[in-house]
Design goal:
275 residues, alpha+beta, Arc Repressor Mutant, subunit A, Immunoglobulin-like
C-alpha cells in the first residue's frame, strides 16, 4: 500500500511538471495522464487525491497565476495576456480571473500601485451578523452559519523575518475549498507569528495562511512564485484550537491565486467600481 502511495505521488508530480511546462498549450487530461503514465480515468482520481484539485482545475490555476505575473510585469492589454496564457475568449478570461483571483485584472494592477507606496495595517474580517461576543461564546448559530470559534497560532519558516520592526505580513483566512482561490470568507492580517481568532462558518471550513516579508515588492504580495504557505490538513467542523506552521510552497502545490490585499478595508470602494 505504501509503495502505491509513493507511486501515485510521483505520478502526480510528473503531471504537475508537464502541466506547468505546457500550460499555455491546448493540452488535455489524456495528455497529462500520458505524462503521468496512467489511463485518464485512474490518473484523474489519483491526481485529485494527491493534489486536492482535478487536473483541469490545476491547469487553470497555473494559467491564472501566470496571467497575474504578466499583468504585474508590464502594461500589455488584457486581451493579449488572455491569449498568451491559453484562453481564447477575453470575456471568459476576465470573468474567471475575477472568480479565481478575487478582483478583475485592472484592479490587480491598481493593488500593485497601492502596495508600492503603502503597507497594509492589521485588520480582521467578520461576516455580517457576527460579533466578538459570538466568538467569545463559541456556540453554533444556524441563523448566521456560525459553527464555532477557532483560536490558533501561526508559525513562520526561518529567515522570513527582516529584523526588529520589520515583521512579515501574515494573512490567515477560511476558504470554501483547500485551494486558495477567490477571497477568504473570514480573515485576518497580522504582523509576524503569534495568535489569531476567527469565526468558523459552515460555508468556509478550510484554514489557510500565507506570509510575505515586510520589504516585499508588490509582485511578491500578489503573484509570488513560491510563497510561504500553511494549510490545516482537514476542514474544521467546530470550535477548535489549532497551530499553523508555514513553509515554502512545493512546486506541485496549487498556486496561491487570492489577491489578499483586496481585503484591506480602504481598497473596497475602488474594487467595487473595477470588478
Amino acid at each position: 500500500m505504501r509503495d502505491q502511495r509513493v507511486e501515485h505521488e510521483a505520478a502526480a508530480r510528473r503531471a504537475v511538471s508537464f502541466i506547468t511546462e505546457r500550460a499555455t498549450e491546448p493540452i488535455t487530461v489524456a495528455d497529462m495522464a500520458d505524462a503521468a503514465g496512467y489511463s485518464p480515468f485512474h490518473f484523474t482520481r489519483l491526481f485529485a487525491d494527491r493534489v486536492r484539485v482535478t487536473p483541469n482545475r490545476f491547469l487553470a490555476g497555473v494559467r491564472f497565476h501566470r496571467a497575474k505575473q504578466l499583468l504585474l510585469a508590464g502594461d500589455d492589454p488584457v486581451v493579449d495576456i488572455c491569449h498568451e496564457v491559453g484562453f481564447s475568449s477575453p470575456g471568459t478570461f476576465t470573468r474567471r480571473f475575477r472568480e479565481e483571483v478575487g478582483v478583475a485584472p485592472s484592479a490587480l494592477r491598481h493593488l500593485a500601485d497601492v502596495l508600492s507606496v503603502s503597507t497594509p495595517a492589521p485588520f480582521t474580517i467578520y461576516p455580517d451578523g457576527i460579533t466578538e461576543a459570538d466568538l467569545d461564546a463559541g456556540l453554533p448559530d444556524p441563523s448566521t452559519g456560525l459553527l464555532g470559534t477557532v483560536d490558533g497560532t501561526v508559525h513562520l519558516p526561518p529567515g522570513l523575518g527582516a529584523g526588529p520592526g520589520l515583521e512579515p505580513l501574515v494573512w490567515i483566512g477560511f476558504y470554501p475549498t483547500p485551494s486558495p482561490t477567490g477571497l477568504p470568507i473570514t480573515g485576518i492580517l497580522r504582523f509576524g507569528e503569534g495568535s489569531f481568532r476567527l469565526p468558523l462558518l459552515a460555508s468556509a471550513r478550510w484554514l489557510l495562511a500565507t506570509a510575505v516579508p515586510a520589504t516585499a515588492e508588490p509582485q511578491d504580495h500578489l503573484a509570488n512564485p513560491r510563497p510561504a504557505v500553511g494549510i490545516h490538513p482537514q476542514p474544521l467542523t467546530g470550535t477548535a484550537t489549532v497551530r499553523l506552521t508555514l513553509a515554502p510552497a512545493a512546486p506541485w502545490q496549487f498556486p496561491l491565486l487570492s489577491a489578499l490585499p483586496a481585503l484591506v478595508p480602504e481598497h473596497h470602494h475602488f474594487l467595487r467600481r473595477t470588478s
